[in-house]
């Protein structure tokens, strides 16, 4: 009995230490990120950083305008969600409610395999295959546009949306579906008016996590979106080259002098990106807890 209690205490201590290490690492990361980012505002106005429309870090009078990078990330992310959410939800409904169980058991693992493909592979596919198609089809000067980045990011977000949405739909109690069918509803009426609303919280969490995946992606958008730091419109901005916050950090951090305003500006961008993704994850976790409670 004593040995068993010691083992349980040891396991509890190990789990606590693992959780504490993760929390401490996150806190240290936040301190390092914000400490370096805030140093920019000793010589540069935070208002100008947030509202300036030009990103010219190497000019004679440097301008560190976040706005074109923020809007570039926004346009690409919105385009990705508009592409991936309808397709992902349709696939999740088909796998959960319509497909033959043997076929569904193959489709879901295959869809989830997409999540394990490195982002550089997606970027290479987009650069070699999708970019020429977009350029020729739309008669654009270049195929490296926000639209191309949106399509690739949408494909990358699909596994998350399909997997979590399918789990949410499958978790709806069978008795609710059978009750709807017993009252004379068709299969599609049951899916649309009963199953989908009951799983809406879980589906919303899937969409939020898909947004988090899209907005935090670096390599893919750097390869296919053109990297022009200009303010895009929407939807016309989908057909122009844009630069995202993540791509800016990846492109410029390796060549920037350490301790310069440019160096601190990149950390400030990283701080904004961290806060954005952190808020998205909090909202997604809140929705997931609500979904579990409701079911």
From TrEMBL:
GO MF, any single term: phosphate transmembrane transporter activity
GO CC annotation terms, alphabetical: plasma membrane
Keyword match Membrane: yes
Membrane protein topology class: Multi-pass membrane protein
Signal peptide: none
UniProt source species: Methanolobus vulcani
Record keyword tRNA processing present: no
PANTHER family referenced in this protein's UniProt entry, alphabetically: PHOSPHATE TRANSPORT SYSTEM PERMEASE PROTEIN PST, PHOSPHATE TRANSPORT SYSTEM PERMEASE PROTEIN PSTC
Location relative to the cell: Cell membrane
UniProt-listed Gene3D superfamilies: MetI-like (1.10.3720.10)
Protein name, per record: Phosphate transport system permease protein
Stretches assigned to the ABC transmembrane type-1 domain: 70-284
NCBIfam families: phosphate_pstC (TIGR02138)
Membrane-spanning residues: 12-34, 66-92, 113-134, 146-169, 190-215, 263-287
Family: Belongs to the binding-protein-dependent transport system permease family. CysTW subfamily.
